[in-house]
Input
Amino acid sequence: MKMTDNRSAAAAAAAAAVNQIEVDDVTFGYAPHKPILRNVSVKISKGRFVGLLGPSGSGKSTLLKIIIGLHKPWNGTIRFFGNSSTESYAYSSKSIGYVPQVESIDWNFPVTVKEVIGMGIWDRSGITPWFSKDVDAMVGVILDDLGIYNSEFRNRQIRELSGGEQQRVFLARALIRKPTILVLDEPISGVDYNTREKIMEILRSLNHDLDMTIIMTTHDLGGIGKRLPWVICMNKAIIAEGDPSMILTEDNLLRTYGLADYNE
Ligand code: ATP
Ligand code: MG
Output
C-alpha cells in the first residue's frame, strides 16, 4: 500500500521520536530479594551526551551493564530504536562500544596495548586480531586520534601504563568497533586535570562530529557533571534528569548523595 505524503511525514516524525536506548521499568539485583536497581526507566535519543551520576554503590555500573546486555533484568525491558534488546543489539552486536571501570580490571595479565585494542573486534575478525595487518593499521589510526600514538607505545605492556593512558587504550578498544553508542564507566577517574580535559574533548568531538550517542558515569560533579548537556541522578532508582543547571539542585543532590541508604 502506497503511503500518502501526510502519512509518510507522520511516519518519519514517529521514527525520529523513537529513542535509541530505552530502559523501561527495570529491576535487577545480584542476590535474590535484594534489588540494586528498582523500577529504573531511562530514555536516550540518538546523539545525546548523558552523564550518569550517583554515589558509590548506587548501581551506575550495574545499569550500564544491563544496557550493554551483560546482565539480564529481573523485570522490565531494554529497547534499541523501539525494538526489544536481542543478541543482535547487545554488546556483541558491535553497535555498542563499552569502556569498563578501570578499577574493575585485573592488571596482572601480560598483554600489550595493541592486543587490548584488538580485542575490541575479536569477534568480528574471527581470528586473533593482533595477527592481522588491517587491525594493526586501525590500531595506529585510533591511537593517533587519541593523541597517544608512537611506534613503541602499541607494544607496551598495559600494566605499565599510567591511569590516563590506560583509560585511552580502553577507549580505543571501544572505538575500533566503530560504535554508534559509546558506554563509558568512569572514563575520567583517577586522572589529572589535563588528561581529564583531553579525554572529555575527544568524547565531545565523537558526539558532535560523528553524532555518537554517549552515556558515561562520573563522580566528578563540579568539573564534568555541570558541563554535560544532560545528566541523570540515580541512587538505585532514578531521582532526577535533565539539564544540569536545572537538575543539580541542593534538594536533588541531597536525595541522591545525602541521606539515601545505598549500603543495604
Ligand atoms: P561506584 O561509583 O563505586 O563505581 P556504582 O554506582 O557503579 O558504584 P555498582 O558497581 O553498580 O555501583 O554496584 C551496586 C551494588 O551492587 C554494590 O552494592 C555492589 O557491591 C553490588 N555489586 C556490583 N557488582 C556485583 C556482583 N558482580 N556481584 C554481587 N554484587 C555486586
Ligand atoms: Mg561503578
